[in-house]
Amino acid sequence: MTQATPIQLPADWRDFYALTKPRVMSLVIFTGLCGLLAAPGVIHPVLGFTAILCIALGAGGAAALNQWWEADLDAGMKRTAARPLPAGRLNRTDARDFGIVLSAASVVVMGLGVNWLSAGILALSIVYYAVVYTIWLKPRTPQNIVIGGGAGAFPPLIGWVSVTGEITLMPVLLFAIIFMWTPPHFWALALFVQSDYAKVGIPMMPVVKGERSTRRQIMVYAVLLLPVAVSPWLIGGTGAVYGVAALALSLAFCALSLPVALRQSGQDDKMKPEKRLFGFSILYLFALFAVLVVDRVLANHGLIG
């Protein structure tokens, strides 16, 4: 009696969802929403929802394309080996097609439903992450995170432009905040997972330049982030509520970066200062953009000047 060939079941929807990097997407959606809510002017709630949905779909599509391209690398790293592609729960063609469909749909819907300027910026952000960062920068230079930081900095700019239809200094500064925040945020992570990157040959800063150089640069970027974060207040784009909060949060960021910068290699092998900075950096961005929206709401109600 011939044994029946087992039927291969389709991938679980949760595997496709995992391709979108939900944790990263939550930050993308939040900063995009804050950019939209803080922008001057009014957008219809349906169009506002459409804009945020498109930002989410675009980010998810870019993440899927990133994992499609890096499936072999992910298989070699402990931190990413359980992802759907290296774990064998999805095939690469499905992941690629899923990423392309999400990316294309997000841009088309954004253009038709909101405006074509925000759609163009969304398309640029997808290409920047999926091609410029993933394919070109990441495997070639330890400055990959610095240059590639722009990929994650687009959402508040897109949200703002969805409302106003134009690029002004304020949304550019919101872009700059995330751009300057990305290196110390990601290098804090890279310090305690650098063995993974070294194993697969990705030239992250700690692997190529060493821990000492990376720690110094974390401190430098933390210090540079402070005036950039406060600049929306300095140019009169926000009130004192945002300005004081941005100053306090940025000083805390610098304070937590200092022990990372001063720590010697081999000291405290549990990497507590680095993990503390990485955790705070996520809280920092959420808090900073949340206060931006609170400041705008207070100003709209005439409670602050």
Write a compact overview of the structure shown.
It is built from 14 helices and no strands.
Explain what the structure shows:
The protein has 305 residues and is an all-alpha fold. The protein has two domains: 17-167, Orthogonal Bundle (Tetracycline Repressor, domain 2); 168-305. It is built from 14 helices and no strands. The N and C termini lie far apart (84 Å). The model is unreliable at 1-9 (pLDDT under 50).
The CATH top-level class label of the largest domain: Mainly Alpha
- The name of the CATH architecture of the largest domain is Orthogonal Bundle
SSE-based structural type: mainly alpha
Annotation field: number of helices: 14
Q: Major sheet: size, sense and barrel closure?
A: none
Strands, total number:
0
Percent strand equals: under 5%
What is the CATH homologous superfamily assignment of the largest domain? UbiA prenyltransferase
Cα distance spanning the termini: 84 Å
Q: Please estimate the helix content.
A: over 70%
Give the ordered list of helices and strands: HHHHHHHHHHHHHH
Number of domains: 2
Rounded average pLDDT:
91
